[in-house]
Amino acid sequence: MNKKVLSLSLAGLILASANANAFYIGAGVGTSKTKVDGENVDKDNALTVSTGFKIPLPLIPIRAEVEYLQFNSEEDGLGEAKTYGVAANAYVGLPLIPLIKPYVGMGLAYSQLKGDGEKSDWQVVPQYMLGLDLSLPLIPVAGGIEYRYMDTKFDGKDFGNDGVKTKVHTVMMKGRFHF
């Protein structure tokens, strides 16, 4: 078993070193429009921190990452709520323009909703992304703008039999530093 793990790790290292700047760390901040059980939430913000790598394919840029995400909401009269978790995301770029690269992505987040002393059960939540990256060839920094959508129902003993249904639309500014 250890030989297989070592061989796979070595193969991954060789593939990553063949493509300069393969590994990256990133962060994003933005604003969200959240509906909880059909009601709009007044104030929302979003934060993500990620690490990932580019898969070295010649024509189509592909990235895979692990991300911490947090969405904070505040509703007048209802208090604050926080959705947070860890996600695994995959992105496929569309090589249309040399410096500006549109992309689509999908991820699965393992997340929880907390608010006013109540919390949901942990659950898997799908998320969908569309974005534009700006990356210059000689600089190891990339940035861009991203739209993200999450639609889920959080269950748990604190939320009764029906749970809480949330729909989150997020627009974020994101940046990555490539190693």
Structure characteristics:
179 residues, mainly beta, eight-stranded antiparallel barrel, 1 helix, elongated
Descriptive report:
With 179 residues, the chain is mainly beta. It has one helix spanning 2-18; strands at 23-36, 39-40, 43-55, 62-75, 79-93, 100-115, 118-119, 123-135, 141-154, 164-178. The two termini are 30 Å apart.
Spatial strand sequence of the major β-sheet: 1-3-4-5-6-8-9-10
The average pLDDT is 84
Number of helices, counting only DSSP H or I runs of 4 residues or more: 1
- Proportion of residues in helical segments: under 10%
Quaternary arrangement of the chains shown? single chain
- Low-confidence parts, pLDDT < 50 over ≥5 residues? none
Distance between the termini: 30 Å
Number of strands: 10
Q: Characterize the largest beta sheet: strand count, sense, and whether it forms a barrel.
A: 8 strands, antiparallel, barrel
Strand content: over 45%
- The outline comes out as elongated
Structural class: mainly beta
Rounded radius of gyration (Å): 18 Å
Strand-and-helix sequence, N→C? HEEEEEEEEEE
In short:
The chain has one helix and ten strands, in the order H-E-E-E-E-E-E-E-E-E-E.
Give me the secondary-structure topology.
Elements: H1 2-18, E1 23-36, E2 39-40, E3 43-55, E4 62-75, E5 79-93, E6 100-115, E7 118-119, E8 123-135, E9 141-154, E10 164-178
Antiparallel strand pairs: 1-2, 1-3, 1-10, 3-4, 4-5, 5-6, 6-7, 6-8, 8-9, 9-10
